[in-house]
Amino acid sequence: MAANLAAFRRIPLDRPDLRRASVAVCVMTGSSGEALLITRRASTLRSHAGQWALPGGRREPGESAEAAALRELAEETGLEAGPDAVLGLLDDYVTRSGYLITPVVVWGGAPPGSLAGPPGEVSRVYQIPLADLDVEPETVTIPESDAPVIRLPLLGRYVHAPTAAIIYQFCQVALHAAEQRVAHFDAPVFAWR
């Protein structure tokens, strides 16, 4: 994974009109192989309530993409990782809600026990086997957009963009050394707010 990420030519974006955010694409080892940490957002949140998400959030002034991802990973899951755990960056992704997200791939190692985030933000932290996420995404069309809307099946529900787009790019780049771009994928209307 590290070699594939090091060889990847990421596309950074310079969009000062957007709020900068980072997400941690955190890979862990488990009894059934590598897994990705994914959270379910609390149902009481004003925006994106109940949705699948990667640990992440808005960057603080002067904070690097990597530092923000590591901070958010610790805040939302309880997993502490240092700068040496960063394996690489994926393409920046622009959301309909006005964010420029930088995905930071992090090696989380073996789980330190149970992981949990603040109940007001995170309802649960999941360790999803990479094999369950390394699938061909589904795309649907919606009348509000000319772009395909990406989604990945997960535990009887769907992961939507931006999370689905980032996970799909991670799997293609890190696991298959494919130079997959995802900026052309859209999110469903409920995720635009």
Short overview:
The chain is α+β, with helices and mostly antiparallel strands.
Describe the fold and architecture.
There is one protein chain. Helices cover 19% and strands 36% of the residues. The protein has helices at residues 2-7, 65-77, 130-133, 163-176, and strands at 19-30, 33-41, 52-53, 56-58, 86-89, 93-94, 99-109, 122-129, 138-142, 145-154, 157-160. The radius of gyration is 15 Å and the shape is globular. The chain contains four helices and eleven strands. 39% of the residues are buried. It has 193 residues and is an alpha+beta fold. Strand 6 (93-94) and strand 7 form a beta hairpin.
Summary keywords:
about 190 residues; alpha+beta; Nucleoside Triphosphate Pyrophosphohydrolase; eight-stranded mixed beta sheet; three-stranded antiparallel beta sheet; 4 helices
